[in-house]
Amino acid sequence: MAISQYPSKLSLPIINPGVATVFEYLLIKFPYVKASVWQQRINDGKVHYHDGSLLTMQSPFQSQQRIYYYREVENEPIIPFAENILFQDQHILIAYKPHFLAVTPGGIYVSECLQNRLRQRTGIDTLQALHRLDRVTAGLVMFSINPETRALYHDLFENKRIHKTYQAVAKIIKNQALIDKEWQVNNRIETSEPRFTMRITEGEANSHSIIKCIQQTTQQALFELTPITGKTHQLRVHMQSLGFPILNDKYYPHLQPLSADDYSAPLQLLAKELKFIDPITQQPRHFQYDGNLSLL
């Protein structure tokens, strides 16, 4: 049994979904976790409020309370790839996340995520991710170190003042001439079925990406991708909408059956650059991962 040494946090919603206790809400919020598991966690003192006081099975639901709990999984896979710290000061840390490593705990991953690895490596328990990358995507992630300045850096992402650049590799048809071609992709992306996938629908556009081919061989092309908006799976959906699904994508264009990770065939998507004006110094910041995706 793997048990996280760091608590996960949730805030109870403003609108009560029709429950009397926090326990009942947890059953609705996490439908795949058995009631007996939550009952055991509560009885073992593994669920508490922000002030450290423990929940009981009878603790009443009160909107906007913060609840902390410790995630557990039977068998946690070990991801055989290393992270790398590119930059660190008193406010932020920039790290490279390898393919297959989650940014924060989720699913079958408790301790084996970038945030927990970095907390253990640096000894900074206040380290907190400011944004997310899909587990199967590699690249740069920014973390807040100082809780007192965290809101300033969160605001960069909330108000779209972060410029992100990605790379992706896709198969192409022989003899296609794509280098320097650029696509402005604007469309509406909504949740599909199953709900962890996304689809393009009719209606007002809510997603925007700029995609450019920067290198190609007879079989594959390397694309530079700039997301203007930040919808879930946006770049993966936009690439497949152009007829260039990202190499080794198990969701798009067709959802593949659930299977173990194939470490020899990672999704060919890399979060390569972050640019922004630092909210404290007002100076431009530019962080770039030195590696590139490779073409056959």
Keywords:
296 residues, Structural Genomics Hypothetical 15.5 Kd Protein In mrcA-pckA Intergenic Region, Chain A, Pseudouridine synthase, 11-stranded mixed β-sheet, alpha+beta, 3-stranded antiparallel β-sheet
Give a description of the structure.
By secondary structure, this protein is α+β, with helices and mostly antiparallel strands. It folds into 3 domains: 2-73, Structural Genomics Hypothetical 15.5 Kd Protein In mrcA-pckA Intergenic Region, Chain A (Roll); 84-159, Pseudouridine synthase (2-Layer Sandwich), CATH 3.30.2350; 165-270, Pseudouridine synthase, CATH 3.30.2350.10. Helices cover 15% and strands 30% of the residues. The protein has 5 helices and 16 strands. It has helices at 22-29, 35-43, 114-122, 150-158, 234-241, and strands at residues 2-3, 8-11, 47-49, 66-69, 72-73, 84-88, 92-97, 128-129, 138-144, 163-171, 182-191, 198-201, 207-216, 220-227, 269-277, 284-288. The strands form 3 sheets. Strands 6, 7, 8, 9, 10, 11, 12, 13, 14, 15 and 16 form an 11-stranded mixed sheet that branches. It has a 3-stranded antiparallel sheet with strand order 2-4-3, with no helix packed on it. A two-stranded antiparallel sheet has the order 1-5. The radius of gyration is 21 Å and the shape is globular. It starts with a strand and ends in an 8-residue tail after the last strand.
Write out the CATH superfamily name of the largest domain.
Answer: Pseudouridine synthase
Number of beta strands: 16
Here the CATH topology of the largest domain equals Pseudouridine synthase
The helix-strand sequence is EEHHEEEEEHEEHEEEEEHEE
Distance between the termini: 42 Å
- Mean pLDDT value: 93
Task: Specify the helix fraction band.
Answer: 10-25%
Task: Assign the CATH architecture of the largest domain.
Answer: 2-Layer Sandwich
**What radius of gyration results from the CA coordinates?**
21 Å
Structural class: alpha+beta
Stretches where pLDDT is under 50 for at least 5 consecutive residues are none
Shape, per Cα inertia axes? globular
Number of domains: 3
What is the class of the largest domain in the CATH system? Alpha Beta
Biggest sheet features: 11 strands, mixed
